[in-house]
């Protein structure tokens, strides 16, 4: 009986550690989704600005906010800078997307290794699955690594 009581807390600690790791991984994935969405919105704004100022005369004066300071420039100076910013945003989005896919794969491997299942409502599955894709998923951890539900 003494051996059982010693092994039980260690086993429970391992389950809690796995559940904690799973939770942290889910949080990281949700943060990546959120950041990617923010950057995609910023990318769309840059595209709108580029489309609006591209047909204008390159000598025309315009104003641009740089580090909280409004500065006067020409369209010829601003357009290349906005295009470079858009390209930089796209590169960051691509890197974050790669990191997201890697994290999702690691989470899937963890779930398979410890037989973790996320319990969802039957009819709500498709709407929650969409929310998960957008980084706002909530679920209940069940399976071998869960404490109790």
UniProtKB/TrEMBL annotation:
UniProt cross-references to Gene3D superfamilies, sorted A to Z: 1.10.287.370
Sorted UniProt keywords: Chaperone, Coiled coil
Organism annotation: Sphagnum troendelagicum
Record-linked Pfam families: Prefoldin_2
Entry keyword Membrane: no
Biased composition (Basic and acidic residues): 120-133
Coiled-coil segments: 79-120
Family: Belongs to the prefoldin subunit beta family.
UniProt lineage: Eukaryota, Viridiplantae, Streptophyta, Embryophyta, Bryophyta
Spans through the membrane: none
Keyword Coiled coil: yes
SUPFAM superfamilies to which the protein is assigned, alphabetical: Prefoldin
Lineage top rank: taxon: Eukaryota
Residue span of region Disordered: 120-149
InterPro entries: PFD2, PFD_beta-like, Prefoldin
Protein name from the UniProt record: Prefoldin subunit 2
